[in-house]
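Annotated sample (chain length 294).
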Amino acid sequence: MNNIKITSTLLLFIFISSIAFARGSVEEKTMYSQTLGREIKYKVYLPKDYDKGENFNVFFLLHGLYGNEKDWTDPQQGSASVIFDELIYETEAIEPMVVIMPDGGNTWYIDSKEKIQTAYEKDLFPFVFTNYKVSKEREKVIIGGLSMGGMGSLNFFLRNPEIFGRVILLSPAVYDKLTDEFLEVSPVTQKDMFNSYWTNNLENYKEKIYTNKLKSEIYIVIGDDDNLVNSEGKEDFQERAVSIYRELKNLGNNVELRIVNGGHIWKVWRDGLRQGLIATDKNSKIRNGFSTVE
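Output written by the structure step:
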């Protein structure tokens, strides 16, 4: 009889523990892009109650140069699923969300030899809104990324501000002309980069936000020791981040800029991901701990 009681107690403890420590799941997927004529790989983080819920927040999280769809969930790099579990379930700092982490190659997320920008806008984004239980309300749709993914996120936002109400830019590598090193590994031309520089999307952005009275929540972070250099060899990406901040702030958005201790490294991006998700979430319980840089 005592053995039965002990076994029952143990099973109950295991059952309660499994509920208490239940977390989101990560899956590897592909979707077919009509634009590219091939599959796009992506990883997806699903909150633990995904099957029971609906209208979840959705976050398109982009990787950097030399990366792929696995970077953000790699425990040695992004550890993103741990961060999402922590913010959603442990601290309850943000609302549950679906996170899409697609493979963008070394394309800088712009149209060149492959029309990757068009493929995301015409194929990937609509696919996610159709096939996952996510909301289309702007304040629940987030785009963000690190380095090259920061540039891609900024351009997608400026081109589609009616879709994305929240933006997280982590050490954005906003190049108008690539260094020789990056040009060698990227399937883009210097003309493509110049035409895709973020300022070239501003007129489209201004027209849409003024017409539709749009306002967004934006978080930008970069390390004080970030060693990215422009095509002339100058380390000026902190200045470029400030320029982005000022332009978007002057256009009426809620923008926060952080220049933090660190370089072009994962610690800056992991911490920035945490802080950016809280800072751009109007419903966050601890959002008031952040203040806009003036």
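Annotation: Residues 4-20, 290-294 have pLDDT under 50 and may be disordered.
Annotation: The radius of gyration is 20 Å.
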